[in-house]
Amino acid sequence: MSFMIDVICDPESVHVWERTSSQVSEIGEGAINGKEFLFYAEQEGKRGICFGRKEGELLSHLFCEARKREKKIPILYFLNCYGADLKEKTAALDSYANVFKEFVACGEDQLQIAVIVGNCVGGSAYLAAMCDIILFSEPDGNLCLTGPKIVQSFMGENCRKEELGGVEIHSANGTIAHTFCGSRDCAEKLDILLSAYYQIDQPEKAPAYQLENSIVPMSNKAYDIHRIIDGLIDSGTWLETAPGYAPNLVTGFARIGGMNVGIFANQPQALAGTIDCDASEKGERFLKNCKKLRLPLLVISDVPSFMPGIEQERNSIEIKGAGLLKAMIRLDTVKLTLILHKSFGGAYIVMNSVRLGADRVYAWPGSTIGIMGEGMARALSKNPNSWNENMGLSAEENLNNKSLSGIIFPEETRYTLIS
Questions:
Q1: In angstroms, what CA-CA distances link 371 with 303, 336, 354?
Q2: SS in 3 state form for 390-409?
Q3: What is the distance between the alpha carbons of residues 7 and 334, in angstroms, rounded to a whole number?
Q4: pLDDT digits over 79-132, tens only?
Q5: Which range has the worst mean pLDDT, 8-12, 346-350, 384-388?
Q6: Any long-range contacts for 369-378 (C-beta under 8 Å, 24+ apart)?
Q7: Are 72 and 230 in contact (CB under 8 A)?
Q8: Crossing angle, helix 90-105 and helix 123-130, to 10 degrees?
């Protein structure tokens, strides 16, 4: 038998409570670097594993044990399943239904992580999608509702399984948060997530370099926000979530001064850092995970607006933007904001403004905050040569009206955030 759980866990930390008679599925508890979790695991590399009553009973047992614990312990699912067992007919579907109901009954504060180690099809794909975070095996993972044969029969489309549920499609649509190559990479990423959940800080590491005025990008010039992030966080601690999806919003986990934090940043290099429908959905999911992980949040704002246009309206930008807004308000951990150059309109609000509930909002010198930027203001003006310059206020003016907590220079930013 080959279970990834046996490879990634601390020696002698794995305790298997129960297995199916076929020995392909098991439940139990384990630990990575001392951080405990409960698990449901299917054999890695095994073909033809299906889900039926026995698998459902295993998961019911797991959920029952989880509810008995005084403190919530994360639940990890190592999935390699072709879906419902055809031999069991409706009974297999009912087993999935029971599992879904008990999954939700675990509560909003129960962290649940799916680790796709092989095929994950049908009901098992829904089980993975219900989890807070999905880790995906880059060479072996596959996540889809049905396989190519069913798609060809039902839709007349010829495709490979990689086109339906491979790493490329799910990285682009935001379904998977992280990919991994091999058990060691998987263990390292799970360790980061579990450290965040258990709020285990580490010794402080210096950033990759010191932020100084000489490396700070010019206002209104496209630049890579990772340059700023690397100058703020402890070197080597960055774990970005869904980097292939909505690249105009960068989200991820890191440590600053040894403390675990979530990072939520506009990316001027993509769509000028505007917030569109995809970024709203990506951001909402990330903020919900920060709430579940109880992580402090650092928001880095350099944003001209929400993305306007016909396509965004067709895709319900107001509904998706409102979802992001509610998620930011509901995150009840420490929340800090750093405004780099500009922050305008509704995007200024949703990027953790003072009145929305930020604990501190800082800005670099020369930043502008207001209803809209110069380009939009000129477009609305009857006379473009006499547009209203008061649409945006300087950092100093915003400090006076208490929309800012302080103005700080790049070289003192990391120290200010830590203190």
A1: 12, 21, 15
A2: HHEEEHHHHHHCCCCCEECC
A3: 36
A4: 999 988 889 999 999 999 999 999 999 988 899 999 999 999 999 999 999 999
A5: 384-388
A6: 369/339, 369/342, 369/343, 369/344, 369/393, 369/395, 369/398, 369/403, 369/404, 370/344, 371/344, 371/345, 372/305, 372/344, 372/345, 373/304, 373/305, 373/342, 373/344, 375/304, 376/304, 376/305, 376/344
A7: no
A8: 0
Kindly report the number of other CB atoms within 10 A of residue 209's CB atom: 11
Task: Identify whether the C-beta of residue 222 lies closer than 8 Å to the C-beta of residue 299.
Answer: no
* Paired tokens of 220: 């209104």
Angle CA 19–20–24, to nearest 5? 85
Question: So what's the pLDDT on residue 61?
Answer: 96
pLDDT above 70 covers a percentage of the chain that reads 93
- What is the per-residue pLDDT for 125? 95
Percent of the chain with pLDDT over 90: 71
Count Cβ atoms below 10 Å from residue 86 Cβ, excluding itself: 10
Q: What pLDDT does 215 receive?
A: 65
Block residue for tokens 């006499």: 386
